[in-house]
Amino acid sequence: MSNIGDNGEQTDRAALAALENAVGGLLDRLSDVGARAVEAEGKSEELEALVKRFTGDDAEAGRMLTRLKGLEDENHDLKDRLKKGRASVDRLLAKIRFLEEQR
Questions:
Q1: Considering only Cβ atoms within 10 Å of each terminal Cβ, which end of the chain, N or C, has fewer?
Q2: Is the pTM of this model over 0.70?
Q3: Sequence-ordered list of residues with C-beta below 8 angstroms from that of 24, at least 6 positions apart, any chain
Q4: CA nearest 85: which of 27, 36, 24?
Q5: Quick one: DSSP state of residue 55?
Q6: Looking at residues 30-45, what average pLDDT do you find?
Q7: What is the average pLDDT value for the chain, to the nearest integer?
Q8: Which domain holds residue 73?
């Protein structure tokens, strides 16, 4: 005969496994976004060099570089969001570790 405490412990284990899977998925997504941000920065630098080299029209070069600056600002914002997301994940992991130690 199983004990009521056993059912609660099984439920806790299932919830913990689900939480760990969710955190793992979030970490994977954060890593992907970070890699995309780094790639975007590299392309941005290449584009700036090409625009300066090949644009004969200073106005067009200015418009393109203005757009580039906007993208760089957006990239910076995304990096800030990633940093905050990683901090949230770290807090979640700390809570998970705490809960595991309480068992």
A1: N
A2: no
A3: none
A4: 27
A5: -
A6: 85
A7: 82
A8: 4-102
Element of type H or E holding 1? none
- What's the pLDDT at 77? 94
What are the structure tokens assigned to 49, written together?
């060099």
* Tally of structural domains, the chain: 1
Contacts 24+ apart (CB under 8 A), 62-68: 68/44
Count CA within 13 A, CB hemisphere, residue 55: 15
Find out whether 84 and 34 touch, Cβ atoms under 8 Å. Answer: no
Which residues are CB-contacts of 9 (< 8 A; sequence separation ≥ 6)? Answer: 103
Amino acid at 99: L
Please classify residue 70 by burial: count the beta carbons closer than 10 Å to its beta carbon, then call 0-12 exposed, 13-18 middle and 19+ buried: exposed
Q: Side chain identity at 96, as an amino acid letter? A: I
Provide the residue type at 63 as one letter.
Answer: R
pLDDT tens string 12-22: 888 888 888 88
